[in-house]
Design goal:
This protein has about 90 residues and is α+β, with helices and mostly antiparallel strands. The protein has a single domain (about 5-85), classed as Orthogonal Bundle (Arc Repressor Mutant, subunit A), CATH 1.10.10. The protein is about 50% helix and about 25% strand. The chain has 4 helices and 5 strands. The strands form 2 sheets. A 3-stranded antiparallel β-sheet has the order 1-3-2. Strand 2 (about 60-65) and strand 3 form a beta hairpin.
């Protein structure tokens, strides 16, 4: 792996160390969702959820698509989450 690949992998690994971010990724595996839907399903306070979504986006794990005033979050690459670990 080159330095760029190592840095990208490091960002991804750091992003998934937080349990709430793993929960969000797991939900987005099912289908793209708006913030209000993620909030409803996870019970994470909106400002904290926005912070977690930003970290996932900066790590390249999710992308966004604006739909009017709402933002749709989409998983950008398959992530397999199991009790044994996470696979990109």
């Amino acid at each position: 792996m080159n330095k760029r690949q190592i840095n990208l992998l490091s960002k991804k690994l750091k992003a998934i160390t937080e349990p709430n971010r793993l929960r969000v990724l797991d939900l987005l595996q099912i289908s793209p969702m708006f913030v209000k839907d993620i909030k409803k399903m996870t019970k994470i306070e909106e400002t904290l959820l926005s912070f977690h979504l930003k970290i996932l986006r900066l790590a390249g794990l999710v992308t966004t698509q604006r739909k009017g005033k709402m933002v749709l979050y989409i998983i950008s690459q398959p992530v397999k989450i199991t009790e044994k670990g996470v696979q990109f």
